[in-house]
Amino acid sequence: MNAVEIEQAITDLAEQPFDAASFPYAFLEAFGNKATTIQRLRSGATNKSDLGGVLQRDNIHIATCESGQVADTLKALKASPTTTKAKAKFILATDGADFEAEDLTSGETVACAFKDFPDHFGFFLPLAGISTVRQISENAFDIRATSRLNRLYLELLKNNPDWGKAERRHDMNHFMARLIFCFFAEDTDIFIGKGRFTETIAQMSARDSSNTHEVMNTLFLAMNTKPGADRAAAKIPRWADDFPYVNGGLFSGSMDVPRFSRIARSYLLHVGGLDWTKINPDIFGSMIQAVAEDEERGELGMHYTSVPNILKVLNPLFLDDLRARLEEAGDNARMLLNLRKRMAKIRVFDPACGSGNFLVIAYKQMRAIEAEINQRRGEPDIRSVIPLTNFRGIELRDFPAEIARLALVIAEYQCDMLYRGQKLALAEFLPLRNENWIICHNALQIDWLSVCPPTGTGVKLQADDLLGEPLEQAEIDFENEGGETFVCGNPPYLGSRDQKDEQKADLRLLFDKRLKNWKSLDYVAGWFLKAADFSTKSKSTAAFVSTNSICQGLQVPVLWPEIFSSGCQIEFAHTSFRWANLASHNAGVTVAIIGITPQPRSPRRLFSLDDMGQTIEHQCAHINAYLAVGESVIVEKASQTLDGRSEMTFGNMPLDGGHLLLSRDERDALKLTPEQQNRFVRRIYGSAEFIRGLERYCLWIEDQHLAEAQTIPPIAQRIHDVRKLRLNGGATAKDLADRSHQFQRMYIGKHSTLIVPRVSSESREYLPCGYESTGIVASDAVCAMYDAPLWNMALIASRLHLVWIATVCGKMKTDFRYSNTLGWNTFPVPTLTDKNKTDLTRCAGDILLAREHHFPATIADLYDPGSMPDDLRAAHERNDEVLERIYIGRLFKNDTERLEKLFDLYAKLIASTAPGRTKRRKVGASA
User: Is the pTM above the cut of 0.70?
Assistant: First the structure.
C-alpha cells in the first residue's frame, strides 16, 4: 500500500463505530498487513501480548482500554517485558475517545482525540515499510487532500461517465482545478469568511444533491463576472453576489458542472472541510495530476518529489550563487539593490515541467532571498519584483500544465502572506492575471527560444482561458530587457528499448542529421541536446535529473562529443543516487544530475554520496562526461589492452539452437562410456553457471574425433539438427554449416580459464570472477582469459576495476554489463614490476583460498552483500590495498578519487600508445 491508500484506510477506520476488540486488527490491516498475518495474530499464534492487547513482533504493541485509562495503558505497554523482547517500534493505547502512541526509537509521541488520529498517519508509516516518513509527515495535508479528491473524482465519473471520455476529459480536469482554487481561497480569506464556498454549497444545495451542479455553476459564473452592471445583467443571485471576481481565465469558458450523487456531495463537503491553508503547491500539483490521469491513478501517492532532491538541481544551478551574493552584500544597500534587480530578470525554465514542482520551489526559494534583501534594506512591505511569468515551462499534457500555473499562483499568494502580510497579499491577489507562461507542447519539437527568448520578462499575449490549451500560443511577444536563464527539470528518461514510435520520432528529428548510433540513446538525451543548442543563443545554464546511463558505457561517445562541440561543458554534477517516491519498500530509480553551460564557473562542483548516504562535495577544475574529475576524455572500444596484460575475449558462441548444449540428464541419456564422455562432453560455464553454480554441459568434438562421434546415434542426430538450423540461418550460420559438430569458435585453455560474467548484479561489492581448471568451456555469456597469470584476476576482482567498468561499460537495467573491449582493454594500470605481480598473485590466491574454505557455497552465496564471509572480505580488502598502493602509494579515499586517477592515467596511456599499437595477438588455443 502507498501513503495515500493508507491514509484513506485509517480515515475509514476512524469514522466507524469504535470496537475495542477488533480495533487493533483493523489498524494493522489499514497498514497493509495481509489477511493471513491478521488471522495468525487473532489465533494467538504470533500474538505474545501480556496485556490482553495485540503485539506484532518488530512492529507495534497495541492495547484498547476502559474510558479514561489511555495514559496508564500506554505506560504499561512501555514497561511490558514483551514489548522489549519483541523489539516493538511503537506502542499505542486508545479507549475510543482518546488516542496516544509513542515511537520507541525516537521517543516522539502522539496524543489526540480518537477521531483525529488519521491526522497523524505519517507517524506510523514505518509499519508499512515506508521510509520517507519525515517528508510525508511534513506534507500530510497534501496526501489527505489527494485521497479525498480521488474519492470525489471517481464518484463523479461514476455518475458522469461521459466526463471520463477523451472529448470531455479537459472539462473534468478544468472543473477539478476550479475546485482546488475555491477550497484554497475560502480558507485564506480570498473569499470573505472562512469556509464560505463549502458552506454556501451545503446551504443552497439540496441534501439529495439534485441541484448541487446548479449551485456550483452559479458560483463559478459569479467569479467570472465583474461586479456592478455586469453581474446585474447576468442576474447573479444575492447569495452568490459577494463572491469576488476572479478573472484570470480560471472561471471562463464552459460553465458546465458534473452532476452530483449524494455520496459525491458528501465527499465534496468533506474535502472542503479540510484546512487548505496547509497546501504545499510545490508537491501538491503532481499528486493532483495522479488523480486526474487514469494511467497514473494506480500509483496514487507515488508522485512525491522531495524538496531536498529538487534542490540538488536548483542549488548548484543558481540558488547557491544568489545566497553567496546575499552574504557578500551584508547590509550594503546598493549591493542588495543590485542583487534584487538581478533576480528580477532571472528566468527559470523547465521544458518538461509536469505540474510545476521545480518552478514552484525555485520561485519560493527566490522569494525567501528577496524577502531577506527587503528586510535588510528596511523595505519589508515592498511588492515583489520577481514576476511569475519569469518561471516558464513546457509540458506535453494539458492538465499538468494547468495545475503548474495554478500552483504558481497559489505559491505567489502564500509568499505574499508570509513576507508582506495578509492585507497586502489580499489587496493585490485578485483579479488573477490571464497571462500564459506554461506552454502545452512537445518540448523536443518546439523551439525553446519561442517560449523563453534571451530578452524580455513580460508576457503581452493574454488568454481567454487560464486553463485552456495554449497549443498555438508558443510564439509569445515579450517586452523589457532579460537576464540569465536557468533551465532545469526532470525530463522523461526512457531507455531506447522502452521508447514508443512517437518518442523515437522525436529523437530522430533532433539527431538523425547530426549523429550516428543515436537510436541507442535514452529519451532524456534529447533535452540535453536542446539545452546545448539553446545555450548558443541565450545566456543560460541547464541542469537536468537524468538516467545515469547517458554518462556510462556506449551512450557517452555518441552523445557527449556533440554536447561539447556546442561549446558546453559540465559545470556541476551529482553522481548516481536513488530518486525515491512514496511507495512502500520502493527502490526508486538510479539517476544523476548534470549541469551544462558554455561559461562554467570555477571551481566545478562534483557531488556524491558517502557510505552513510550524506552528500559530499568535491571541487575541481574539470568534470568529464563520465561524471568523474578530469579533462574531457571519451573511452572508446579497444581491440587490445593498453599494456602487456593478458588479452580477454568473449567466450564461445554455440550458434546451435541448443542442440550442442546438455543438461546433466541429457548428458547421461547419451549413455557414453567414460572414455567417450571424456572425449565428447565438457562442462560449460556461462554467467548463471559460474555465479549460481548451475550444472551444464556441451558437446565438444575435435575434428579428429568426428567420425567416431557420428557413430553414436544421439550425437549424430544433434549434429544433423545443428546443420539444418545453420543452413536456414544467415550468412554467418551458413558458413558454419560444414562444421556443425562445433561451436562458432573453439577456444579453450590448456591449463586454466579465467571467467568474468558479462552480466552480474550491481548489488555485489566486487565483480565476480574466478579460475576454472583445464577442460572447461566458456560460453559467450562470459568473457574469458585462457592460461592467463593469476595476477590478472587481482586486477579484475578489485574495487578499482569495478568502479571503472561501472562507469565506462554501463549497465543492463541495474546489472553491470561487462565488455572486454570497453572494460578490460581500456582499464588503465600503471607499469607493474615483477614484485607487484608477485604480490597481486598472492592476493588473488588468497581470494580463491577463502572461497574454498566455504565450499560448496556458490559465488552468489559468497558475495551476497549481507552475508559475505569475513575471511573473503578481508582477502578482497587486502587485494585492494596492495593494488591501490601501486597506483598512489595509499588507499583511495572514495570512488570519486579512484575515477579521477583512472581517467588521468587513461588519458596519459592513450597519448603514449596511440601511435604504435601492435596487432592483436591470437587468443587462447584451438583444440
Answer: yes
